[in-house]
Amino acid sequence: QVQLVESGGGLVQAGGSLRLSCTASRLTFTTYAMGWFRQAPGKEREFVAAISWSGANIYYEDSVKGRFTISRVTAKNTVLLQMNSLKPEDTAAYYCAADYVSRTDVAYTRAAHYGYWGQGTQVTVSS
After folding, report:
1. Which of 99, 103, 105, 101 has its CA nearest to residue 117?
2. What whole-number distance in Å separates Cα of residue 79 and Cα of residue 51?
3. Burial degree of 92 (CB within 10 A; 0-12, 13-18, 19+)
4. Which residue of 33, 49, 56, 109 has the lowest C-beta tally within 10 Å?
5. What is the pLDDT of the chain when averaged over all its residues?
6. What is the mean pLDDT of residues 99-121?
7. 46-75 average pLDDT score
8. 53-81: average pLDDT
9. Distance of alpha carbon 74 from alpha carbon 29, whole angstroms
C-alpha cells in the first residue's frame, strides 16, 4: 500500500514562509504525478499545485502562482511545496496526493485523478 507522509506545517505570520514536504513509500516514484491540495474548515478540498513525474510539467492554482513552488526530489521519493508570502487565506490542512501515470509525463488538477492521499499537515497563517 502506497504511503504518503506530510510534514512542515505550522503557525506563521502573514508574509512568512513554510516548506511542506511529502515523502512517499511503497511505490515507484517516477511513475507517479504528485499534487498538493488544501482544505479549509467548511470548504471543499481545492487544488494547489501539481508536478509530473519528470518535473517538466507543473501547474498552480491561480491564487498561489508566484508565491508557491512545487518540486520533487526523486532520490528521496519526496515532493516539496515552498510557500512564500503567506496570507491568512492560505490557512488550511494541506494534503499530498499521488496519481499513477506510468511514464506519461502529465499531472492533473482534479482531486479525482489521485488515488493516494496523505494524512495532511495544518498550515495556519495569522494576520
Report:
1. 99
2. 9
3. buried
4. 56
5. 97
6. 95
7. 97
8. 97
9. 7
Instruction: Say if CB 21 and CB 6 are below 8 A apart.
Output: yes
Chain centroid to CA 62: how far? 15
Mean pLDDT of 61-69: 98
Phi then psi for residue 31, to 5 deg, are -110, 15
Q: Say what the pLDDT of residue 88 is.
A: 97
CA-based angle 52:87:120, to the nearest 5? 50
> pLDDT at position 103, please?
87
Q: Tell me how far apart the terminal alpha carbons of the chain are, to the nearest angstrom.
A: 40
> Which uninterrupted H or E stretch holds 46?
strand 46-51
